[in-house]
Specification:
Elements (H helix, E strand, L loop, with lengths): L1 H5 L12 E4 L6 E4 L3 H8 L5 E2 L8 E2 H14 L6
Antiparallel strand pairs: 1-2, 3-4
Length: 80
């Protein structure tokens, strides 16, 4: 309602740092680029890995395939 009345959504505006509001268990929080490693796998032309978040280990293509399998099971990604 605040957004409709005042124009303030109560969160940071989206920009190149990719702030995304996460809702789920516990209090909502802001994450920065939570899917950037997965996106890098899709846009890197088939590389075996992409940089991890905040200096963490790289995300492997097998991890991406695992995410896609889970999405397909939940109905989030259609089969080809």
């Amino acid at each position: 309602m605040r957004f409709a009345a005042e124009g303030d959504p109560g969160r940071e505006a989206w920009d190149t740092t990719h702030p995304v509001r996460i809702f789920g268990d516990g209090r909502p929080y802001t994450a920065y680029g939570p899917r950037d490693p997965e996106l890098a796998l899709w846009t890197s032309g088939g590389a075996d890995s992409a940089p991890g978040r905040a200096g963490g280990p790289p995300v492997r293509a097998t991890e991406l395939r695992s995410v896609v399998r889970r999405l397909r099971r939940s109905g989030g990604v259609p089969e080809r």
